[in-house]
Every structure is written in C-alpha cells, then in structure tokens.
Amino acid sequence: MAKAIISPSVLASDLSNLTAECKRMIAEGADWLHMDVMDGHFVPNITMGAPILSCVKKGVPEIFMDCHMMVEDPIKWVPQVAEAGGKLYTFHFEAVADPLPVIKHIHAHGMLAGLAISPQTPSTAITQQAWDAADMILVMTVHPGKGGQKFMPECLEKVKELRERYGWEKDVEVDGGIGPGNICQCAKAGSNVIVAGTSVFTASNPSDVIGQLRKAVDD
Ligand code: DX5
Ligand code: ZN
Question: What is the superkingdom listed in this entry's lineage (predicted)?
C-alpha cells in the first residue's frame, strides 16, 4: 500500500497571508502544500503563478510545493515553476496532444511529474507508458476551476481501475471536495495523496482533520 500524503490546497487559505498559512499547515501536520495554478484559459479563473510560488518558497524554504497546473500550455511554465521552487508539476491530460514529452521536460527541469485527468476523461487515457513515465497520477473529483465544490464519488471508479491495471508503485492523488466525510471511500478506491482545501483550512482544528485523512489511508 502507498503511504498517505496530505496536501492542503492553499486556495482555501487566507491568500493575503499565504506564507503564514503555509507555515501554519506544516505545523498542523501537512506533508505537501497544493498550489492551484489557473491561467484563465484552461479554466475560467486566474489564481497564482510562478512569482507567487517563488515568494512562498522564500518564506517557507522547507515547503514541498505540489503544483497543480490548470493551464492550456503546460510545457510553457515548466522552467519558471522549477525556478520558483516547485517540486511536483502536475498538468492536465486534456491540455496536451501527448503527455510523454511534457513529462520528459518536467524531469529535465528537476521536478517530479504528475498527470491529471478531469472528471470527463476515462482512466484509459493513462496508458502504460504514461503510468511508467509519470511520478503521480491525479484523478480529479470535481471539475477543475474552483475550490469548495461538491465531491463526485463516481470519479473514484477510475482510481480503482488504475490500481487494478497498474498496481501500487506510484502515487495516486485525488482532489476536490474531500474531507473526513468521504475520505474512507477515497482510501478504499486506492488513492494515497489527498488534497483537501475547504475541509482543512476552515476546520477549527486542522491537525485533527489532517490526522483523520491520514489514518483512513494508512489503516
Ligand atoms: C479545483 C482545485 C482543487 C480545490 C480543492 O480546481 O484543483 O485543488 O481547490 O479545494 P476543495 O477541497 O475545497 O474542493
Ligand atoms: Zn487542485
């Protein structure tokens, strides 16, 4: 079984105080911080880009930035995000003609590569070659574009299919609408990297929520 990695999404944090919010979550037990980069093209919203990531990295040098790139031209931003201190660069299958050269480019810039599928994309989009080349697969459990949406349990079928087809060597991340109420379903399907924005950042005791998410995956 793959070990739990809990990655709170900073989109749900107090963005006017981003560095302090990242530090707070690390102190509460977060393994990674999930940085949602939106370009206004792949999705309608615009959030943050490399200049902000770079400030966060300077303010919180120990951070593992799990960069979720909801952008229409993922290859374009690889050098800037690497330079800003991004550790994992996850781009969308729907944005590219062939994910393999993008994965190579990410690795060449010293980052881990993640490949994301949106709710409308079947698990078969992840070929054996893509599974082998990527470091992580992200199965979205909401339509990408904004935080605080309703969890789509039907997406978990794809996590199950990926585990059945390819096994447990790689990390499988889930993202969108996740919290203590549905973490058992996510864990049972086979995901081990858990993104949670609203449920963690609005909790009166985030370490307790992070602990519950971790326990469901590791037990
Ligand atoms: C949605 C983003 C998610 C989202 C998660 O486009 O990719 O990371 O912010 O936030 P919650 O947990 O609030 O759905
Ligand atoms: Zn995300």
Answer: Eukaryota
